[in-house]
UniProtKB/TrEMBL annotation:
This protein's name: DUF4352 domain-containing protein
Compositional bias per record (Basic and acidic residues), positions renumbered to this chain: 47-56
Region: Disordered, residue numbers: 31-56
Occurrences of domain DUF4352 (ranges): 74-186
Domain of life: Bacteria
Record's keyword annotation contains Signal: yes
Annotated signal peptide: 1-22
Organism: Streptomyces chlorus
Keywords attached to this entry: Signal
One Pfam family linked to the record: DUF4352
InterPro entries (UniProt xref): DUF4352, Immunoprotect_excell_Ig-like
Higher taxonomy: Bacteria, Bacillati, Actinomycetota, Actinomycetes, Kitasatosporales
Length: 194
């Protein structure tokens, strides 16, 4: 009797593992900006040529739609500006020797049905042209106010602020990424900065 229970448990575990593997599509990187609906409305037409003129990858000023784990959790994320190098707003908080600050201003608009509550800097990182990635750091820069560390947005609300990164002085920062749920959601937005 106990042997049958152990076999049944092993079969159930194997089926469960296969089911999880089959359902898990893995993480994806989103780098195609949203269609510019306002520009299409102004022109009064929506032709295939106009769609082909859209940039191939997102850049500064473009908006990407990202989703979180929770049902109805969705943001339109825009990289608004980049400050490279960024100057510290605090004389006591400077980059380490041989490093510099880079600031990226993000706008987050809650386009989902669920409230958004997270620390956006946890899900942001930059990468240089060599592929080295750098997480956000604490710091205020003269370019403007930092993104709130505990941002809460009801559906339809937006948040705007700078996220700061500390990178080697010689690094050529090439891309910035943002992922919901403190970096753990399946979809990651990526923007070219150069």
């Amino acid at each position: 009797m106990h042997a049958r229970i152990r076999i049944a448990a092993a079969v159930a575990a194997a089926v469960g593992a296969l089911t999880l593997t089959a359902c898990d599509t893995g993480s994806t990187v989103v780098d195609k900006p949203k269609d510019n609906a306002a520009a299409q409305a102004d022109s009064g037409k929506n032709t295939a040529k106009e769609k082909s003129d859209a940039p191939e990858v997102a850049k500064v000023g473009d908006t990407l739609t990202l989703e979180g784990f929770e049902e109805g959790s969705k943001l339109d994320v825009t990289v608004v500006k980049v400050a490279d190098p960024a100057k510290s707003a605090d004389e006591f908080m400077e980059p380490a020797s041989g490093k510099r600050f880079v600031g990226v201003q993000f706008q987050l608009v809650n386009t989902g049905k669920a409230a958004y509550s997270d620390s956006p800097s946890n899900g942001a990182q930059v990468a240089d042209s060599e592929g080295q990635q750098f997480d956000a750091t604490f710091g205020d820069i003269t370019a403007g106010p930092s993104m709130a560390s505990g941002l809460k947005l009801k559906p339809g609300a937006k948040g705007l602020g700078w996220i700061v990164f500390e990178v080697p002085e010689a690094a050529k920062v090439d891309t910035v990424q943002f992922t919901m749920d403190s970096g753990f959601a399946d979809k990651t937005g990526e923007w070219k900065l150069r």
